[in-house]
């Protein structure tokens, strides 16, 4: 009888050992991104959990297209442990495919029940409407315009979309400027801007440039085109003599041919938490507010252009505004399709600076 009991016990232990196995649970197994513009990079996070009772080993992750990729730091999970994997899908040229489109990312592991576990990313990819633009297009053309004059002079009148950093404070605010983008600096005449560019370039801002002649040089070329005036300001040009240097200089005509203006429709607290440098926070809750605001926008003249980017959190209101602007003649007005959320999905917090 004892031998029989030991045999039964031994068989039970063996059976228990045989039953022990890892079990990979993935959430989500299907990610539907809805509708995306052609060229948008879809990025989402998948949770991987070992719900079994022995160690899970992820041997590899495969995908059926170079348009997809992943990031996975942890490949060994003990029972009950979890990790995350980031999956990306570049939708470039997928608007020409049958819709909806889908791609697979397959996880290979030692889970005996599902040694190959597919994750599906799917959705509709379409082309841009004339009034829509992708995060990639905004990132490609973006620059920062810095007004180095005093806060008082800036408040009286400044170039549209300029950020005010008085020259004496520039060293303390270098962290608010991107090193990867062109930075145009101006003062009244161009003298202080030349010195400021030298400071920036010494600190690895290799794309910093002086607006030749400063505001006075701009005025001589274009008057108060693309100027923002205080309501009570006397609209007169700056005084002094414009300085036209030869080092790291951009002419007013070069800036005027590709002038940009970013309008942020999000709430003031959301805007303050992180926005594009120089973006103006505007509330357009009603049609009347939109019409009145649009009527005050400057119109480009021959030889100049004005690219207006309208942004919100998800692109819903911004695209309606951009469509309206195109309808009244602002042919380069665009919304950021997918909004700031789409920007963050592709570029993270790059170029999104908190209000200072």
From TrEMBL:
Keywords annotated in UniProt: Signal, Transferase
Coiled coil: none
PROSITE patterns linked to this entry: RHODANESE_3 (PS50206)
Ranges where the Rhodanese domain occurs: 139-227, 262-352
Domain of life (superkingdom): Bacteria
Leader peptide range in chain numbering: 1-20
Gene3D superfamilies: Immunoglobulins, Rhodanese-like domain
GO molecular function: transferase activity
UniProt keyword Repeat present: no
Protein name per its UniProtKB record: Putative Rhodanese-related sulfurtransferase
Protein's organism: Candidatus Bipolaricaulis anaerobius
